[in-house]
Fold this protein.
Amino acid sequence: MDLNADLGEGFGIWRLGDDDALLALVTSANVACGFHGGDPSTMRRVCEGAARRGVAVGAQVGYRDLAGFGRRRIAYDFAELRDEITYQLGALDAFCRLFRTRVRYLKPHGALYHAAATDESQAAAVVAAVSGHDPDMPVLCLPGSTLAQLAVGAGLPVVAEAFADRGYLPNGSLVPRGAPGALITDPEEVATRAVRMATERTVVAVDGSVIPCPVESICVHGDTPGAVSATELVRASLIDADVPLAPFAA
């Protein structure tokens, strides 16, 4: 099982989350590429740390929205969104090359993640950017989403992601941020959910129903309160449950 977290989301003198501590725990790092968060020095630092620890680097691409942390939906033109994603991929790849590694996958961030799950134009822009940059690059996203379907149609590898620290609706989508049950902060509960996802491939939705969860990578958000302690417990619990941890992208 792959264990991923969103890293490098600070900007300038502001730090968001403990990148160094999380790099010691995860197998894949979704690195902010400067649009919703991150900056060149942060990208370099996280790529260096990931390469040193053997952690796979993925491009976490988002809307050009530092003020809103990429969590406000933007109605992009297809070509503009495609090109902005290509720009972010290229920037992160440049820093990876400094440390003899590369961008191994792409994951949308925030509002773009949710938009691409249902919006065909935005999903198509993501797929076009990835296909143009590297037609063998995996896309990390919600299983069954519009993005997953279009990526498969374009011949891109798709990796199914689940969120140990986010609530699920009965239809398999995430509870919108700000709504009751959207965020799970108790480390014990986060770890229990992660083990269930990995061993049973199911998750309990906010209404108590049990829904399928065909997961290949489990995410713990780096900006969630107590993220490091939660990720430590998730990692230990998965190992105790005899779930091998390794990056999905070689």
